[in-house]
Design brief:
five-stranded antiparallel β-sheet, 24 helices, flat, Beta-Lactamase, 5 domains, 763 residues
């Protein structure tokens, strides 16, 4: 039985608290921390085996609430069995006075042996007893037999009672309650854990034992929960009051304290009764108000029934009036016979209304070939298996011919007996149309499958593929099964998805343009989509054909880039270009060519120009001759000058060469005119400058020759004079020195003259 979610949460929380508390104590023993062993507030430490049993039983309860049904049963029995075995062995040691060594098997206990602790590490007798009972109850709780479940429930209640007695003993200082006549006492935190764990275990079967008193939704269950909680608060309050008065020494006599405690308990009980009575009175008041409302509703209902009866008679009259004039067949059937049919219903089957109402069995008379189908639909509606009936069936007319009818029906109560009231429509013509449509769809599907182009049928509502042909699967790299049901949005990049949804929301019948699609390998292709909205197998779908235009797009893009580059070059170049077809008509020209025509011939160039418009007629009387040579594959280059009105000349370098396609076929002629006026002027200036420099060099040579002879004349005189002076020996050294310098000057002048002569003759 599935537990309510609130109870499951309670059990899980208690199990987790038990695990946390027991693991805390176990850590205290493992790391020798006495405060953790006593859980910070108790006077007596909880033994390691006690905390281990609590951990096992807490884990068992937690696993019991797990939703994983594969391993939870096994884990539950393992945890419950281990805890039960450990507690029963400890209990047997007390009953049969032997020591199995299990008390200090896991952790040693340094507690000194005394009258109160004769066996270190051993849990108290009442603790081992409660663990044994708790373990047996947990093992019985999974039994399918109700007797075992009831036994387990009362075992849990017994453990709860023993723990409650121990807690009351601690609160009121009665050691008998928490020792059960034994010397060793159950620690207070152990009693608390026993109380909450046993209560949680009893909640696993909330409909059994005392738990059913506290877990129901009736007033008694609510009162039980309310009183029990308040009684616990009263007991705790009274215990606190007793302990405080004892510590303060307010009463010298124990009898006075007990009497005062009884008086306080009486007043608290009166308050509790008063609170409960007020709460019950409020519930009773709400019940009386509800009864009064019900009585008022009954009175109104009786009046309403009277009014509705009158309205029903009027409605019946209106119904017969409307039904008799209706173009839809109307019928009422009770016990397989008609109690009413309108004229249209009878007319569909070729009868008069009175012929069908006179005890004719509708199933045998009108539907002899489909009796089981009609009877089954009547049965389903009369038994409430379906809310209404709607089906198509072949009937038989009075003349023996057949027709198809669509029948609707709903259950009503007439005279205390169930009946069917409904309508009928003759759908014979529609069935014929549907058969023709199915035949057409079969032919259409055959064409769809055999088409070499990728075809898709797509649901317009959710954009999922209904069908795709082999060509679509092959082109996109999928199988047909993989494509069926796939979302078409997966074929489009994320940034295109919104546009795709908008495309499918509008009605189309033709070209949707070019879009991007993903193939299975996530490569992008460009496809042209042609779509038509059609009805296929009764569904509104979109039939789409996709044509891969990726290569075409790349070619167009390349062409556009080439054209853009060409236009950029033509706009920025200083060369005039003109393109002509094979008939020498202008196909294209740049601004430089247009400016050339304007400057040379004084008119605006247009597409009606021919090759001869770019060449002077006095120089080229037959331009077609040049063009024919070019159209034969020859390149022609020449220079030409144009003389302006002011007498200046402008020079152009003209190139004529053929334009061919990839197959080397000549498509036309391209003419290029390069303005070379500056180059021509530079060449002329260079020649003029060269002539001037040559003349200047010749004049320099003449001057050097003359200078060399004019200098040598006085030098020769000086040399003659020096010769005459050599006869005088008065200053012979001076004369020798003069003679040496004169000879050296003479040799320099002769060398200069020879150099000038050699350069002159070389030039």
């Amino acid at each position: 039985m599935e537990l309510p979610q609130k109870i499951r949460r309670t059990i899980i929380i208690i199990s987790l608290l038990t695990l946390i508390g027991s693991i805390t104590v176990m850590c205290g023993w493992l790391f020798d921390l006495p405060s953790l062993q006593k859980f910070f507030f108790a006077q007596i430490a909880m033994k390691f085996n006690t905390s281990l049993c609590f951990a096992l039983f807490g884990a068992a309860l937690l696993v019991l609430q797990s939703t994983n049904k594969i391993y939870n049963n096994t884990l539950f029995f393992v945890f419950a069995a281990l805890g039960t075995i450990l507690s029963i062995i400890t209990l047997c040691q007390e009953l049969f006075t032997f020591n199995s060594g299990i008390d200090t098997l896991f952790v040693g206990d340094k507690t000194l042996v005394s009258v109160f602790f004769p066996f270190p590490g051993r849990m108290a007798f009442n603790s081992s007893l409660n663990f044994s009972l708790l373990g047996i109850g947990l093992l019985l709780i999974k039994s399918p037999k109700r007797l075992f479940k009831i036994s387990a429930q009362y075992i849990f209640h017994l453990v709860t009672m023993l723990a409650a007695i121990a807690l009351i003993g601690y609160m009121y200082g009665v050691s008998l309650f928490h020792t059960l006549f034994y010397i060793t006492a159950m620690p207070v935190h152990t009693a608390i854990l026993f109380f909450i764990v046993s209560a949680a275990a009893s909640l696993c079967n909330p409909s059994l034992g005392i738990s059913q008193v506290f877990t129901g939704k009736l007033v008694g269950n609510q009162m039980a929960r309310r009183l029990f909680f308040m009684i616990i608060l009263v007991i705790a309050f009274m215990a606190t009051l007793r302990n405080e008065t004892r510590q303060m020494g307010l009463f010298s006599s124990k009898d006075i304290g007990v009497s005062l405690l009884a008086v306080c308990f009486l007043f608290m009980s009166l308050l509790l009764i008063w609170n409960t009575a007020v709460w019950l009175n409020k519930i009773d008041l709400r019940r009386q108000e509800a009864e009064d409302k019900v009585m008022m509703m009954n009175t109104r209902l009786e009046k309403l029934v009277e009014e509705r009866s009158a309205e029903l008679k009027e409605a019946e009259l209106k119904f017969r009036t409307i039904a008799d004039k209706s173009m839809v067949g109307v019928y009422i059937v009770q016990h397989d016979t008609f109690i009413y049919v309108n004229p249209r219903f009878a007319q569909v089957f070729g009868y008069e209304p009175s012929d069908l109402i006179n005890g004719i069995n509708l199933v045998e008379k009108l539907f002899p070939n489909n009796q089981e189908l009609v009877r089954e639909n009547l049965r389903k509606r009369l038994t409430g298996e379906v809310e209404s009936i709607h089906y198509e069936v072949m009937g038989q007319k009075h003349d023996g011919t057949t027709n198809w009818v669509e029948i609707y029906g709903n259950a009503v109560n007439i005279g205390g007996e169930p009946a069917i009231i409904g309508s009928m429509i003759d759908v014979t013509e529609r069935k014929k149309t549907e058969e023709e449509l199915k035949s057409s769809e079969r032919k259409y599907k055959l064409l769809f499958e055999s088409n070499p182009m990728p075809l898709w049928m797509i649901d317009k509502e959710n954009l999922r593929i209904i069908a795709a042909n082999d060509a679509a699967a092959s082109h996109y790299g999928y199988t047909k099964d993989e494509l069926t049901g796939m979302d078409m949005k997966l074929f489009r990049p994320a940034e295109d998805t919104k546009q795709q949804i908008e495309d499918y929301q509008k009605e189309v019948d033709g070209d949707l343009g070019i879009v991007r699609h993903y193939k299975k390998d996530r490569s992008i292709i460009f496809v042209q989509v042609i779509a038509h909205d059609i009805v296929f197998e009764g569904r509104h779908v979109r039939l789409s054909m996709t044509t891969d235009v990726t290569e075409k797009m790349k070619a167009e893009e390349s062409l556009q880039k080439s054209e853009a580059n060409l236009q950029a070059i033509l706009r920025t170049t200083d060369t005039a270009y003109a393109l002509f077809d094979r008939q020498l008509n202008t196909l294209a020209s740049n601004q430089k060519a247009t400016r050339f025509i304007k400057e040379r011939y004084g008119y605006e160039a247009d597409h009606n120009n021919i090759l001869a418009d770019y060449l002077p007629i006095d120089r080229f009387p037959d331009p077609s001759g040049l063009a024919n040579d070019v159209l034969k594959g020859k390149n022609i280059n020449f220079e030409i000058d144009f003389t302006s009105e002011n007498g200046s000349s402008t020079w152009y370098y003209v190139r004529l060469f053929p334009i061919t396609n990839e197959h080397k076929a000549i498509l036309g002629v391209l003419m290029a005119l390069y303005d070379i006026t500056e180059r021509k002027n530079a060449e002329y200036d260079l020649k003029t400058a060269y002539s001037r420099i040559q003349s200047h060099i010749n004049s320099i040579k003449d001057m050097a020759w003359k200078q060399s002879h004019l200098i040598r004349s006085p030098l020769a005189n000086l040399k003659g004079l020096a010769t005459l002076l050599q006869g005088d020996t008065a200053d012979k050294e001076v004369l020798e020195h003069i003679q040496t310098e004169l000879d050296r000057m003479d040799s320099i002048i002769i060398e200069m003259a020879e150099d000038v002569s050699e350069q002159y003759y070389d030039d």
